[in-house]
Write a structure and sequence with these properties.
By secondary structure, the protein is α+β, with helices and mostly antiparallel strands. It has 4 helices and 8 strands. It has helices at 24-35, 74-82, 106-114, 117-124; strands at residues 3-5, 12-14, 48-55, 58-59, 62-63, 89-96, 131-140, 143-144. Strands 3, 4, 5, 6, 7 and 8 form a 6-stranded antiparallel sheet that branches. It has a two-stranded antiparallel sheet with strand order 1-2. A hairpin with a 2-residue loop joins β3 (48-55) and β4. α3 runs antiparallel to α4. The radius of gyration is 17 Å and the shape is globular.
């Protein structure tokens, strides 16, 4: 995973990255940190990592590789805009699409993300809307909060 560019200042943030090589000894340490509220653990869904910069009336959607998705998921963008979040805010989350059975479907999301804007909107008809599982705040109202403890963000 790369870094995400802060579109407001040019600073780069390193996003969260799941580990796949955790040993039983690591797990014991991780659970001890969690019990002392020094670490937050959450379930990984089958979606796509997404960064959401918000600037005034503009809401952007970008992959972890900084691929622009803005304009392809307009319903989600409108919902985020209606929340009236502070200017110069960057959120981090995971975009999810559910198939007709109600399961997370990363392949279906990939189809939506890879096609052009109009095609993506057309493909989304007949499916649950794209969902966003928000899990972090990197910047809030122009203030870099990435170094604050997770609970404060």
């Amino acid at each position: 995973m790369g870094t995400v560019l802060d579109v407001f200042t040019g600073k780069r943030f390193v996003g969260p990255k799941p580990r796949e090589d955790i040993t039983p000894r690591d797990l014991k340490r991780i659970l001890a940190l969690q019990s002392r509220r020094r670490l937050h653990i959450q379930r990984k869904r089958d979606g796509y990592g997404t960064y959401i910069p918000i600037s005034g009336s503009s809401v952007g959607l970008y992959s972890r590789q900084n691929t622009p998705w803005t304009g392809k998921f307009t319903k989600l963008e409108r919902e985020l805009h209606s929340m009236q979040l502070p200017d110069e805010t960057i959120l981090c989350g995971e975009m999810l699409v559910r198939n007709k059975k109600g399961d997370d479907d990363p392949h279906l999301f990939g189809r939506f993300a890879r096609t052009n804007h109009a095609g993506s909107i057309l493909l989304q008809k007949g499916y649950d809307p794209v969902h966003l599982a928000l899990f972090d705040v990197l910047k809030w109202g122009g203030r870099d909060v990435s170094a604050l403890p997770y609970e404060e963000r």
